[in-house]
Amino acid sequence: MTAPTKPTGPLRNAPGEDLHIPVIAWFDEHARDLPWRHPDAGAWAVMVSEFMLQQTPVNRVLPVYEQWLARWPRPADLAQDAPGEAVRAWGRLGYPRRALRLHGAAVAITERHGGDVPTDHAQLLALPGIGEYTAAAVASFAYGQRHPVLDTNVRRVFARAVTGVQYPPNATTAAERRLARALLPEGEGTAARWAAASMELGALVCTARNETCHRCPIADRCAWRLAGKPEHDGPPRKGQTYAGTDRQVRGKLLAVLREAHAPVPQSALDRVWDEPVQRGRALDGLVADGLVEPLPGGLYRLPLT
Hints:
This protein is mainly α. It is built from 15 helices and 3 strands.
């Protein structure tokens, strides 16, 4: 996520102005210095960061992001490599299908847009692996456009500050989209700055647990705080588990293949997990997802096509 150019001129007569001004001022003072926010980062760097930051904290993303951009500074550089190389370079970030999707987007950008990340929101949305959130984030953070950018952090800020509940629904709703559109400042630069600022507020202050309201620039008008911070009474929130799951087995199998630069025999994969049924299910899932390519003779490798 890059920090859009600071808006010029005052903010006046916009819905949510009482939120825009203090949140953007807070962001101007407290925003983290992250490489994808630098003015010279470019749209491809922003796109890479957005793929990597989905469900993954910044401290884990930073070293992989830097290595990725050093190796593939433009979409065409990634597109000419095998998709398995993207999976290899993804390392331990988790959810490795994101690497394949990013590779697919790079190929499409190279073939359809001359190697430049498109500026048009509809063209971004048409790229493989790009959903509603990522298209809006790239258009906003890379190109300073006016789009509602709804990630988990922004949804939580809006749920608390405006709606007065502790947590947003498990999945983004039409009501949340309407609220996000209603809260967008009118000017493009200000709207892009608001998107970045509200996201940062959720990441650093209005966190899922142990929120620090004394540091919040809108604590005095937060509907949830003013209501006495009522406990969440919606559907149970899903906790993320890892140990013993198919995700863990998939990760162990992929780790073997990432380290190998030649096809790997079944026996090498069998050694990473004792339970054969779960191991077989995990391997079948990796093959079905296109993350692993089976070869004759019981060999496996990262995908070449």
